[in-house]
User: What shape does this take?
Amino acid sequence: MRMVASAKLHHAQNMTEKFLHYRDSLQSMVENLGGFQSATLSTGDVHSVVLIPVSSNSGLCGAFNSNIAKATFQRLRELESQGKKVRLLPIGKKIAHELQDKGYDCNIGYYNLIDRIEKGGIFAEVAYLVEFCLQLRQSGEIDQVELIYHHFKSMGSQIITITPLSLDMPTIQTKKDEDFLTEPSPQELLNALYPRLLNAQAYGILLDSLTSEHAARMLAMQTADDNANDLLKELTLLYNKTRQQAITNELIDIMGGKVEK
Assistant: This one.
C-alpha cells in the first residue's frame, strides 16, 4: 500500500505541476486586465457562507480526515457565533459521513468529486460546482464560498488551509497608459476569463488536497510498516527467550533425574 500511495503521489504531483502553469497564466492575464483587486474576497457584509470541506473517500491516511473534520467543526462554530448562515457542501465521503452523523444538513451532490480527479474529465464537473455556487450568489442566497483543505507543503507536512472564493464579477480598477489594446474590451475579456479563473482555483485546490492525501497515506503506511517490523523483532526476541527457557527447563529436569538415580 505504501508503494501504491507513492506511485499515486508522484502522479498527482505531476498533474498539479502541469496545471499550475495554466492557473498562474490565467491569473496573470486577469491581473494584467486590472480586475484582480476585487477577486480575492466578496465585497460588502457576509451573511451567508457556503463551506466546502475536502476530505478523502477512503481511510488509512493517518489523521488526514480527522484534521479536516476538526477544522470544519471549528469553522462552523466561528461562523455561527458571528450570526452567519452556513450551507455545507462536502467533497469526500469521510467528511460527508462525519457531518451527517453529527446531524448537519449537507448537500452531498458533489461528495464523490475527489474520487474521480485522477481519472480525467473532472474539470467540467468542477466547473459545474463553481457554476452552482455562482447561481446561489446571483440569486442572493449566499455571499461567500470557503474551501477547507490540506495544502501540500512537503512529504511530512500538509497544512489545513481555508481559502475563500470571490463570486462577485470584478471590474476594471485601473487603466495605465502602457496598457495594450484589446478586442473586445478589457471588461468583456474580464467577464469571460474570471469564471475560468474560479474554475481553475477550485480545481487546483482539489489537486492540492489529493496530493496531500497520497502523501499522508504514504507516511501512514511507512509508519505502519516500521511499527510492524518493530513488533516482529519484539515477538522474535520473546519467542527465542521462551524457547531457550523451555530448553533450559528440560535440561534441568534431565540433570535432576540423573542425580536422583
About this structure: The domain at 2-220 is CATH 3.40.1380.10 (Pyruvate Kinase; Chain: A, domain 1). Helices lie at 2-32, 64-81, 93-101, 123-138, 186-260. The beta strands are 48-53, 85-88, 144-154, 157-165. Residues 38-43 have pLDDT under 50 and may be disordered.
